Amino acid sequence: MEFGDILKVIGEFGWFQKRLVLLLCIPNFLTAFHLFGQVFIVMDVPHYCNMSWIRKFDLNLTGEQELNLTIPRKPDGSLEECRMYTPVQGSLQSIRFNATEECQDGWVYPEEGPPTLLTEFNLVCERKNLNDISQSIFMAGVLVGALIFGPLSDRIGSRNTILLTLLMMGSFGLGAGLAPNLYVYIALRSIVGAAFAGISISMTALGSEWVGASYRPVILIVAHCCNAVGQAALAGLAYSVRDWRHYQFAGSAPVFGLFFYIWVLPSSARWLLTRGKTEEAKKEIQRAASVNKRSISEDLLKQLAPPKKGGSGSTLDLFKKPYLRKITLIMAWVWFVDSLVYYGMSFHVGNFGLDIYMTQLVFGAIEIPARASCIFLLEWMGRKKCQAGWLLLSGVVCMIIPAIPKTLPIIMTVLAVIGKAALSASFSTTYVFSAEVFPTVLRQTCLGLCSISARIGGILAPLVGLLDEIHPAISMVLFGAMALAGGILCFFLPETRNRDLQDDTAASPSSQR
Question: In this structure, are residues 78 and 131 in contact, taking their beta carbons and an 8 Å threshold?
Answer without folding.
Answer: no
